[in-house]
Sulfate/thiosulfate import ATP-binding protein CysA (Paenibacillus allorhizosphaerae), 346 residues
Amino acid sequence: MTEMHIVAKHLTKSFGTFQATKDVSFEIEKGKLIGLLGPSGGGKTTILRMLAGLEEPDSGDILFHDRKVNQLPPQERGIGFVFQNYALFRHMSVFDNIAFGLTVQKRSKQQIKERVNELIELTGLLGLEKRLPHQLSGGQRQRVAFARAIAPEPQLLLLDEPFAAIDAKVRKELRTWLKDMIDRVGITTIFVTHDQEEAVEVADQIMIINEGRLEQQGTPIEIYKRPQTPFVATFIGESNQIGDISYLKGFDATALPQAKAIIRPEFIEIGSVGEIPFPSAAEKGTVKNVFFRGTNWQVEVDVKGDRLFAYRSLELPALAPGDSVSVLIHRLYLFNESEHAMQENS
Ligand code: ATP
């Protein structure tokens, strides 16, 4: 049986009349790397701060290892933090920064030296022990911040936009590095990001947070392939929306009444006559725009007044605005107020 490490039950938090967190519940397994993903202002940081004990929920419970921690102050929760601008101590060397939490724990000099050296090696900071923070690159500083956070062996590590201030190339390296580190040290980790690529690449599981609600929790592939809300379907990956699918061949609009449909471009095949394998199952459309995307064409097509984006291989003859085409929709997602479904073209 997998060991549930962190459980949140019905967490609610308001600031004045504004509800920042609305009935958020989740479970996180020990050792997993979790990405909290969503648009700005959605409530990600508030959830992190409640887990940390820096913010008290209005209602709901937080449990670590079956133990309710609602009343426990931050320093007794066994948590490590890395924040975007969580500055290192400016006048302390790399070594002393990493040693900080261990000194607070009153470990012996020998123990501190061993642990810090172990972390310096683990985080690839050998040779930089005596440097001050301003003598390091942004990426090196974040590695020191990470080493400092995990030095006291926390049971949970919280990272709030840890790479936001770092330029794109180093950021990509750092997130691969982080994943590798977490795998090695095995600490349950939650990181906040609004960058979907970052979350999808790094996280074992993603939680999509929007307007204070947890929209969906799952592996990156589950989130992408089985979105449970229209927000998730449009936030992750590319999508087209159709208000009424009753005219589409091969789909059953009555299965989920008053549903809107979301169709990913990769679910749509566009071709001139003879290119589409089952033309009787396809719609007639007119090409409106064609964009070169480097690896394929993006084609905008009009189907009975709906504008759909689809991709087309560069190997196929190019299409041009005004061309009549067949449009074969292989699959779509349906959502109404309370339900969701995926349909394949019959
Ligand atoms: P971002 O990606 O921009 O950091 P977020 O998803 O982390 O956003 P939060 O920082 O959790 O969102 O904020 C959620 C909402 O709660 C925002 O509208 C914010 O203004 C509000 N909020 C957060 N903390 C406070 C506070 N201490 N007092 C009043 N409002 C707050």
Q: What stands out?
A: The first strand starts at residue 4 and ends at 15. The first helix runs from residue 44 to 52.
